[in-house]
Design a protein that fits this description.
Length: 255
């Protein structure tokens, strides 16, 4: 029996602690990071990172859940979508044709959904970091060419803040490098967790993202120094002009 786990990211985050929606389904698990809902064989899993996973859920239910989430939180244009085939087998594992589970239970479905959600959320951050990196390179090129920063200081401060916010968001919401709690609660799932992480290249993608953020941070340090130097140079010229004006006034004083 082959089934599909569908994942979509319609929003940047779902604040589960304050939003108690259960879509008239049984709440199997509810934490700040995820909420597992069940109705018979159907599962809907909401993640703090803004991803929703559907298992054996019809199109009408999927559309209703997505619409309600997007009405509650700012929507993302052109939401990203991923899917993962799941089938029953003798042992848990990951292969070319998808994921094999020896039992389709809440614990295993949550683990697979979590890894798929992390992969989907990483895509959004990968695009954001590429944009930040391109902006940083453009600013550094301008500093190299002219010795000063283009634009207003407020714009540079907003860019610095957005870079810091992106890094914080990745670390706080994704936790890609950490084993999920379900692995410690259910012995035997650690290997499946590792195989899923390796198949989706979560660790390597996260480290590549982190290296780019380090490169952006180093570039920002150069930009901050350039900005400070420019302000100091302007201040020095103002002082020089004031001294010159004072000297001229003294020379043109009463004879």
């Amino acid at each position: 029996m082959n089934l599909i786990l569908h994942a979509i990211q319609p929003v940047r985050q779902i604040i589960l602690k304050s939003w108690r929606e259960d879509f008239a389904m049984e709440v199997v698990a509810d934490t700040a990071a995820h909420r597992v809902l069940r109705d018979g064989d159907t599962r809907v899993i909401l993640f703090r990172a803004g991803v929703i996973c559907f298992f054996d859920a019809g199109p009408a239910l999927q559309a209703r859940v997505i619409a309600k989430v997007q009405a509650q939180f700012p929507p993302i244009p052109d939401p990203r979508v991923e899917e993962l085939p799941i089938r029953l087998g003798e042992r848990d594992g990951v292969g070319r044709d998808g994921v094999t589970l020896r039992a389709i239970d809440d614990e295993r479905l949550l683990l697979v959904a979590l890894r798929l959600a992390q992969s989907l959320a990483l895509e959004l951050h990968e695009e954001a970091v590429e944009t930040l990196l391109e902006t940083t390179l453009n600013l550094l090129s301008e500093v190299t060419r002219s010795g000063r920063l283009p634009g207003r200081r407020g714009g540079h401060l907003r860019f610095l803040a957005s870079t810091s916010a992106t890094r914080t968001e990745i670390l706080s919401r994704l936790a890609v490098l950490d084993n999920p709690d379900i692995v410690w609660e259910e012995p035997g799932l650690e290997m499946l967790s590792r195989e899923l992480s390796a198949d989706l290249e979560l660790t390597s993608r996260f480290r590549a993202l982190d290296e780019k953020l380090d490169a952006i941070r180093e570039g920002l340090e150069v930009i901050v120094v350039a900005s400070r130097h420019h302000r100091e140079t302007v201040l020095e010229w103002i002082i020089i002009v004031l001294i010159a004006v004072e000297a001229v006034i003294m020379l043109m004083g009463p004879h």
